[in-house]
Design brief:
By secondary structure, the protein is mostly helical. The chain is 61% helix and 2% strand. The chain has eleven helices and two strands. A two-stranded antiparallel sheet has the order 1-2. Strand 1 and strand 2 form a beta hairpin. Helix 1 packs across helix 6, helix 4 runs parallel beside helix 7 and helix 7 runs parallel beside helix 8. The protein starts with 13 loop residues before the first strand and ends with a helix.
């Protein structure tokens, strides 16, 4: 199955809202800098993926979002720019709890990790993320689309970058002990996500309810701290 944002050419580079020329694959807005209108467009892309898989065109996105193809090209540059922005927007829905202003404690660390786990599990087991990841898996290694790499870079790798400061803060506060933050992240990922995402990706009609997500997240954090907590 081929991603059919095709038969429509666009410049390799596009103008940003500020009038500057940017390479959309490199210099898209930060997640929190997408305008409300751009977010509406990106949500339209996600809804199309739920309804149609990845077989949609830029024209279909324009119709669904009630905007012109020219506007899409201006904002996102090309297919990869639009897809990258869509993945980043979906990933940004995972909320990172703010670290406390004073000294990090065992309780505040546990609260931050649990909040992140709940938000993360809620997002990745939702229909929008499942549709996005199914499309990415279908293209992985095909050479027909960069969607797999885009999802990997802006999904799991982005989550790792967002969690590492919290892990490091825990280590600096004497609360955690690990040799490498990447290893800690992989363990945390496995405990939180477990088989929930793969079951949904493979078609099982399983979506954890909010109460179950809270239970899974709390248990995952408890097990993580059993492994990595100091003292």
């Amino acid at each position: 199955m081929t991603l059919t944002l095709h038969h429509e050419s666009a410049p390799a580079r596009a103008n940003s809202g500020a009038g500057q020329t940017v390479d959309p694959a490199v210099a898209l807005p930060e997640d929190d800098e997408f305008t409300e209108r751009q977010r509406e467009v990106l949500d339209a892309v996600l809804k199309l993926m739920v309804a149609e898989g990845d077989g949609f065109s830029v024209a279909a996105v324009a119709r669904a979002a009630s905007c012109s193809k020219e506007t899409l090209y201006k904002w996102f540059g090309d297919r990869d720019g639009l897809l990258t922005a869509t993945v980043r927007w979906q990933a940004s829905k995972v909320r990172m709890p703010k670290l406390p202003q004073d000294r990090l404690t065992r309780a505040s660390l546990e609260q931050a990790l649990t909040g992140f786990a709940e938000s993360w599990l809620t997002v990745i087991t939702g229909d929008l993320s499942i549709a996005l990841n199914r499309a990415a898996v279908s293209h992985a290694g095909s050479g027909k689309s960069r969607l797999g790499g885009i999802v990997l870079t802006n999904g799991p790798f982005a989550m790792k970058r967002r969690l590492e400061p919290l892990f490091e803060a825990g280590r600096e506060a004497g609360l955690l002990s690990f040799e490498e933050a990447g290893e800690a992240f992989r363990v945390f990922f496995g405990l939180v996500v477990a088989d929930a995402q793969i079951r949904a990706l493979l078609g099982e009609d399983y979506r954890p309810e909010a109460a179950e997500i809270r239970t899974i997240s709390a248990l995952a954090v408890t097990k993580f701290l059993d492994l990595y907590a100091r003292g």
